Amino acid sequence: MDLENTQVQMRKGILEYCVLHIISRGEIYASDMLDELTAAKMIVVEGTLYPLLTRLKNAGLLEYKWVESKSGPPRKYYKLTLEGSNFLEKLTETWEGLIHSTEMITSKSKAAS
Amino acid sequence: MDLENTQVQMRKGILEYCVLHIISRGEIYASDMLDELTAAKMIVVEGTLYPLLTRLKNAGLLEYKWVESKSGPPRKYYKLTLEGSNFLEKLTETWEGLIHSTEMITSKSKAAS
DNA sequence: AGAAGTACTTGGCATGACCAAGTACTAAGC
DNA sequence: GCTTAGTACTTGGTCATGCCAAGTACTTCT
Fold first, then answer.
1. Count of alpha carbons within 13 Å of B77, Cβ hemisphere only?
2. Under an 8 A CB cutoff, do A25 and B112 touch?
3. B95/A107 Cα distance (integer angstroms)
4. Chain B 45-104, CB < 7 Å to strand C
């Protein structure tokens, strides 16, 4: 029961929400997403992000197009499908509800109960 | 990739935090915890809560004592150990950091990027 | 004794984040 | 032309944990 593991568990699902949100702002490819996630201290590694993108694509929430690059192999630029947009909306509600629920519990002081 | 599943994933780890917090407020047994979690709409079922409590106890974060009940079998009243208190503190930081990170991402509008 | 209610236990399943390699393409150096 | 370095994407396996569905055990009421 170490802290690091709990942090990993807490990230579950939330990452999916963050990735969808990043993509909702415009077409983008994986490495740039990683940079943004890292900047927000939502540490993620390649091997986590790529499978996630594939899952989202297979679920019909994302689509991508190949774009040639001047410095390396071509890149997959992702964008949300209509279904993805709708899903993101519902996810936002879920996330906000979860924060609210947690707050309901953690804001209670010892005295309250 | 349905919504309900994502909600389940998002709950991972957070539940542990909530449970520790509830127990930090005073000795309590499982059914009452369930009531409080349900009231906060953090829906959880027996089969999730009991194993979690056992894990936390085995990790040395919780301890319990049996207390006779007038209406049924005896109950396990849980409370935090010192180690549990320390862990809860670190978990609070983790959770708040996670919220902050998520906010950094979701607060960016389309224009930003 | 039998039924109902409360409290706790247990075994198996599914999901997703992680790790660690591995593949594939481009450009630069020799 | 071959090797090396850099960038992008893939894949197989592991692990923790929330969930489901029964099951056990104790008490009270009829």
1. 10
2. yes
3. 14
4. 46-47, 50-51, 53-54, 69, 71-76
Nearest to B6 by CA among A77, A11, A58: A11
- What residue spans define the domains of chain B? 3-106
Instruction: State the pTM of this model.
Output: 0.90
pLDDT in tens, A10-39: 999 999 999 999 999 999 999 999 999 999
Neighbours of B54 (CB within 10 A): 12
At the topology level, CATH places domain B3-106 in Arc Repressor Mutant, subunit A (1.10.10)
CB A64 within 8 A of CB B71: no
**Tokens found for residue A39:** 């900047």
pLDDT digits (tens, 9 = 90+) for A51-108: 999 999 999 999 999 998 877 889 999 999 999 999 999 999 999 999 999 999 999 8
Interface of A with B in 25-44 (CB under 8 A): 25-26, 36-37, 39-42
The Cα B63–Cα B76 span in angstroms is 9
